[in-house]
Write a structure and sequence with these properties.
single chain, 401 residues, alpha/beta, Rossmann fold, ten-stranded mixed sheet, two-stranded antiparallel sheet, 15 helices, 12 strands, AB_hydrolase_1, membrane, AB_hydrolase_fold, transmembrane helix, transmembrane
Length: 401
Amino acid sequence: MTASEIAASFFEYACIAVAAVIALYVLLLALLTTSIFQSHVVYLHAIQMTWFKDLNVPETFGFRRNQVTPFCIKTPDNEELYAWHILPPELYRKNEASLIAEPDGFVPDIKSRLAFKLLKDDPEARLVLHIHGAGGTVASGYRVPNYRALSAGNPNKIHVLTFDYRGFGKSTGSPSENGLTVDALAVVDWAMNVAGIPPSRILIFAQSMGTAVSIAISKHLALQESPVIFAGTVLVAPFVDVATLVSTYRIAGTIPIMGPIATIPFLFKYLQRFIRDKWLSKDSIAQYIRANEFNEKKYRLAIIHAEDDYDIPWHHSQLLFWHAVNASIPTGITYEELEEKRVDTMADLGAAGSVMEWKTNHGVIREEILKTGLHDVIMGYPVVSMAVMRFFEAADPSFTS
């Protein structure tokens, strides 16, 4: 075979390979317009990531016997949400003998257990409602270290309640934007009306996809005739909305799914029509802030992100922070004006990142951008423990470590 024939053959195979890649990409785009495929891509609920371990045996994930109580919370539309109530370590140590004496595993009636009584009967107890991201279960990845970080500020008093959305793990049903919102509201209802914890002693912690859920329920509760406002809300690695997220999302931080289409505005806008679950966090957070300012309710919001987050780029947090700040000012503020104010108000922490805090007569909006932390590792960092304690102490100065 001559050199020209080899070159021609190579060119032919290269063309076939390029055509195959383009065909697969077009097929992917077509599948993304279907609700079922889209649901799996957005929520990743079919991916368990618990390495064949039994969620009803939390000890296999590093907990002590009966430090975690697995149970279910029922939603108004009759789905069952699998949940964990996690005792803070020092409180567990003080009651270890009694807790060990109880049966372990899944509990049909959590109200019969000592762990529940330690939460409900303690007027000083605090509860963090943990709303996790897409994929996995309550025990997946960096979520277990995250629970420890949430309680670290006061290991005597800070309990954690985490749950799997419908369609995730052992929970029944299939995920959707409305469904996940109903789920989170059912968990809030359980915390306030079953466990008897008032909103002033509850903090919402959310990460990634969970931030959209937490913003949605916070807005919903703030707009009620009798608004419900928590001690604080901590958002880690949030995004402004699904459309913006898919335009920037990269598989493994390198391969853009919608990047090529996002460069063609009219085509990208057309494909947005097929997005079922939009999760408009930028709009919801603005409504949440405006409602609290109008009702003169004290609110506390922290947005935390790492610059090396390759799943959700950190500029999402900058945009969300601006939407929140803009909503807190009757006359508004442009993104550029807010950036100018950073020069005087932002605290540069060097290798630890930066902090900017916006205060009004009624609320605090805090943005913390870390240099490192990736998308999930950051959840176990001290910045999380400090954010939790900062808001609990702000809500009640007598609550200290």
